[in-house]
Amino acid sequence: MTEVLVIGAGLAGLAAAVSAAESGARVTLCEKRSEIGGSTVLSAGLSAFAGTEEQAAAGIADSTELLRHDLLETGLHRNDPALVDAYCAHQLDTYRWLRGLGVEYGKVHAASGQSVPRSHPTDTRVLVRTLLERALSRGAVFLPDTRAHRLIVEDGAVRGVLTEEGERLRADAVVLASGGFSRNPELLTRFAPQMERALRGGAAGSTGDGLLMAWKAGAGVIDTPYVKGTFGIHPDPDGAEGGTGVLAIYKGAIAVNRNGRRFVDESLPYKAVGDACLAQPDGIAFQVFDAQVMDRADPSVPIYDFAARVGNGLLLRARTLDELAGLIGVPADALRETVAAYNAAIAGRAPDEQGRTTLSGGVGTPVPITTAPFYAHPSTAVVLATYCGLTIDPSMRVLDVFGEVIDGLYAAGELVGGLHGAGYVTGTSIGKAAIFGRVAGLAASGAREERP
């Protein structure tokens, strides 16, 4: 019998498997699909860490205290403070642990909800392969194409799972890391009717399996009112956008609606921008910018890889604003007036109509949109991840509806709620997966020693 059974081979599950195996536990990792990665490999690959070598090299002063402040402020203090503290307490050790495994990070970027730049980009496919190889080298058993169907509960304690094929996989502890439910229309309708106009994205395996299994075992669920769409995805679901979309707004673009008017402070977290976008006519917006912003592109980070979108036709280019207005179907006079008002605000001649003072969060100075060529990216919101889920304690133990520990059951990653609250700091999804996954694996492997 295995000692720690991990369900799901995204970043959270892989981190749990590695940390449990490194502690000496016998580990089995199950993944219902044939490939690893889950939603992790569809993300922009940004992790929110504070106090790193990459920040120091760039002259960025950051701290755990500032990270905690940003998490709570962006989450409107609806977060579980204990989970925020757990993220902050373990984030730097997890960053160093990942680097020790060979994970490499690129140039640090500023993004939503961050007082200072702390989005650390990495190649997510390399990341998950690195962790799987580490888990296997430590003796973990990997079972692809194995879908967990029900938890095995004996005398009030979780002791394994029953697979869809009817096989009983027994274990001392189970770590659920099976992702969210962005691909389950029924659960989205039940928990997030506010996302009715949003596109559906996320990993194909994100159908809420772990949530439902734990729910049946009595687990609590939290933060469902805060499910939000991610702004910046092209509205053509059959286009070549991929999973990440574009966030040119954080490099200096403005967002306008079909009337050619701005409707939001573009420096806000992109999930708040997504909510505002869905409230616009047809739920569509256009990120409008110029050559200066194009020069700030970074092809190593998908959300800032603007040139690639020109190549595949998703980013429109024009010599003048009037020509651009014609391409995207908005009134030319309105777009000209909107851009002029924005430029005047930047120059200090008038207040910004949406209250924008920075590029993203509290970082960066907006620049006028004046230099041809001009660009527009049609954008809407997509539910890529659900950012709500099971109630857990700081040791990643799943709590029931009365706040009591469900013996033998742990959870990590997108499946859990409580960390983000009512808002989302960029990089805390990947960050949470790695940090909480690692903590869950360590806790689950330690739990085996407490039982006779």
UniProtKB/TrEMBL annotation:
Its cofactor is FAD. Residues 4-429 form the FAD-dependent oxidoreductase 2 FAD-binding domain. GO terms for molecular function: steroid dehydrogenase activity, acting on the CH-CH group of donors. Keywords: FAD, Flavoprotein, Oxidoreductase, Signal. The keyword Transport does not apply. Gene3D superfamilies: FAD/NAD(P)-binding domain, Succinate dehydrogenase/fumarate reductase flavoprotein, catalytic domain. Transmembrane segments: none annotated. It comes from the Bacteria. The keyword Oxidoreductase applies. InterPro entries: FAD-dep_OxRdtase_2_FAD-bd, FAD-oxidoreductase_2, FAD/NAD-bd_sf, Succ_DH/fumarate_Rdtase_cat_sf. SUPFAM superfamilies: FAD/NAD(P)-binding domain, Succinate dehydrogenase/fumarate reductase flavoprotein, catalytic domain. Residues 1-20 form the signal peptide. PANTHER family: FAD-DEPENDENT OXIDOREDUCTASE 2 FAD BINDING DOMAIN-CONTAINING PROTEIN, FUMARATE REDUCTASE. This is Fumarate reductase flavoprotein subunit. It comes from Thermomonospora echinospora.
